Amino acid sequence: MSKIVIVMPAYNEAENIGKMIEALFNEEFPKIKDTEMHLLVVDDYSPDKTGDVVKTYQQKYKNLHLLQKQKEGLGWAYIRGFQYAVNTLQADAVMEMDADFQHPPRFVKPMVEAYLLGADYCIGSRYIKGGSVPKEWAFFRKAISFLGNLFIRIVLTKFKIHDLTTGFRLTREKGVLDQIDLDHLMEPTRFAYKVDLLYQSIKLSKKTVEVPLEFASRTMEKSKFNPKEMVSTFKVAVILGIKDKQKLIKFGTVGFVGYLINAFFLNFFSKSGFPEWASWGLSTELAIINNFTLNNLWTFKTDEIKGIGNIVKKFLQFNFTSLGALLIQTVLGTIGVYFLGPDKRQLLLPFIIVFVVLPYNYLMYTKVIWKKK
Ligand SMILES: Nc1nc2c(ncn2[C@@H]2O[C@H](COP(=O)(O)OP(=O)(O)OP(=O)(O)O)[C@@H](O)[C@H]2O)c(=O)[nH]1
Ligand SMILES: [Mg+2]
Known about the structure:
- Belongs to the glycosyltransferase 2 family.
- By secondary structure, this protein is an alpha/beta fold.
- The protein has ten helices and seven strands.
């Protein structure tokens, strides 16, 4: 049976935490089948004695745990909670959930069900059908939340996921959480740690699902909506977005150098009286040699092919996959020149490269030649 630990940071939540514990243990957990549900409250020695409330309930519920530590901010509360849940409690999956009822307890069950159906990462989503943000929120706050999310979706090019800043999530330990270096997340003292964690989790997860979440407003106390948190969240998103595109940028640069070589020799060979097909074919092959070498040493440095035998083997394979590109360019180029005339030759080449050859190449390089082990 799977063991799921809900990690719940609570700072000065003495008024909420008792109600939350009762709602989970009395109402929600009994409805969840085929799992052992646990709750781990992470308290930073709250002055209002949140920890003491939890201790009282611990006598009643054996699956209720308390981790107390010094205050270091929201990210660290979750990180230390995850580590305790995995190392000490041996969790198969962890959930992130707030203590202030903004994540209503009734949404735990559908998340667990998605996990039991095979999801590695479940995202409680406010921006899919069935999900929502509080009606009480002012238009301004709704707009900030929606546009902020949209911005992060664009920066990270994660259009398939609708809610990238939600705090309600479930993560499988094996294959996802156990692959993440929790001690080195970006902005661990802040809310922004969520974006880094989400970005890494989506990458590792084979099956990510969004489950609707009706996000509630704070019931007990006034919200402390904070522009500093917002700025750091966007900063993390932008840094991750650039990192994410690094390979693509390098690949594009190598491709451009390849294009220059291609263009130079196409001109050279055709001026030297080579037949049309030979000029295209030869100049393309020279570009292929350039691309293999530069991509291996730079773009895919982390997966660099080493050793003469391996390099020869992979170079042959590279040529074989490039045969597709060679064919595409030679055929399209020859046909193009036939219809448009030789003066359009230099114009034709970049078109064929950008729209046909580059997408084909990137796919082949990442999925075949420099495929991750
Ligand atoms: N242990 C611990 N818990 C924290 C800390 N900061 C926040 N929390 C808890 O983490 C959860 C989320 O924090 P909130 O302050 O509600 O953050 P928020 O939901 O983004 O903002 P609000 O709109 O003000 O509710 C709550 O259960 C808090 O009690 C912290 O530094 N340490
Ligand atoms: Mg809150």
